[in-house]
Amino acid sequence: METQESPGNTDAKLNRRIDRSLLISLVAVLISLIGTAVSIYEARVLRDQQYLQAEQKSASAWPYVETSAVINYQNDSSVLLSCLLRNKGVGPAILGDVHYFYDGAPWESYSMDDALVAQEPTFSVQTQRNSQVDSLVLSPDKDYTIFTLEITGKSTDGFSQKINEVTDKISIEFCYCSIYGDCWYRGKGRAPVKNERCQSYLSY
Where are the domains of the chain? Predict the structure, then answer.
């Protein structure tokens, strides 16, 4: 004689199956969410590591270019005035065009001597050196003379003071980049400032 299950028992078994299926589904969703969270975390860690590596790489090849003026007296009324670029960083610097200014006004590199005489008529000036530095690579701890002027005064009176005044009026502005494409702009009396637009001035 067959025993028939009561409707209540059948419903209870069905509910248990539903509860078990729901639990399995929830566990699967939870595992999926955990996997997604782990993937996001790993991607973030990898991105941070790549950023840190890029920063370390840039720092290991960081150039720092500064300018200086050198005055060599030949006698009481004659000097050689030179302007130098020096790389005091730890990586090579790729230089862009140098722009010259005298007393705040643009100064063409090919006519420095005539321009200086026009401003300082008591001087006789000859250009001893005038170098193009566009795309020049300046190694760490190296300097490069970009121009040298021989200046002779018509009188020794106050000549040294005038030379100092002339030196203070000369300024240069230029861009330079690292080998990784980080670029800086340097103006008179200012520390280098990062400037992506400098890249367009450099011809690789």
Answer: 7-60, 65-201
